[in-house]
Design the sequence.
């Protein structure tokens, strides 16, 4: 299995990846094809696919913020069961991120991820691929050490229509010592930068940010 980085919308493997995204994720979670041009060419956004026998069987997008010394896992797709795609992507991603942090003269402090709450999205089939089932994914990520940030989380729809998307938790994987809190200002700064690309922020998101700004730290809870 190959770990291939996509940096151009013209890459034939990107077409296959986008098709896979549409099969797996709900429409509001998938950025329209042409809008991927700038993100793919952004050196700070890392999009990789798992290629098996010429086909895209998995994908992951993530980024490393040098000034925050944290990463964000945008998404992980496992297209088929039984190929070890999940561990393959997780190991390759971790190796890459630790190398990026090392080049920045630091040790990676943690990684954000939006994780589906299966009790709120159990109706979604995720393309019928069992490894993508919200219950399975949440348990796997819990074993990896991800913790839920204790906020009522919403995010702007990737349709950029000003709608709020619910059903996910904002989680954080602390590196090193087992931390139980995260600085609230880090969460605000991260979310503000992460969603800069979507100008139409829902009022629910703005309210959430203002509430976080009133706090010093946020608790991290088991998921």
Sequence:
């Amino acid at each position: 299995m190959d770990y291939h980085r996509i940096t151009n919308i013209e890459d034939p493997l990107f077409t296959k990846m986008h098709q896979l995204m549409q099969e797996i994720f709900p429409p509001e979670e998938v950025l329209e094809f042409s809008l991927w041009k700038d993100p793919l060419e952004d050196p700070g956004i890392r999009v990789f696919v798992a290629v098996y026998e010429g086909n895209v069987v998995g994908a992951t997008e993530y980024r490393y913020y040098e000034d925050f010394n944290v990463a964000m896992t945008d998404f992980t797709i496992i297209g088929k069961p039984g190929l070890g795609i999940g561990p393959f992507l997780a190991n390759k991603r971790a190796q890459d991120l630790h190398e990026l942090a090392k080049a920045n003269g630091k040790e990676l402090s943690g990684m954000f991820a939006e994780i589906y709450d299966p009790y709120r999205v159990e109706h979604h089939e995720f393309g019928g691929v069992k490894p993508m089932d919200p219950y399975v994914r949440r348990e796997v990520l819990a074993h990896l050490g991800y913790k839920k940030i204790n906020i009522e989380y919403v995010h702007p729809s990737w349709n950029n229509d000003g709608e709020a998307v619910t059903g996910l938790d904002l989680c954080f994987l602390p590196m090193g010592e087992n931390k139980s809190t995260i600085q609230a200002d880090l969460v605000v700064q991260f979310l503000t930068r992460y969603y800069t690309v979507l100008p139409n922020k829902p009022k629910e998101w703005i309210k959430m940010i203002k509430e976080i700004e009133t706090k010093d730290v946020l608790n991290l809870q088991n998921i």
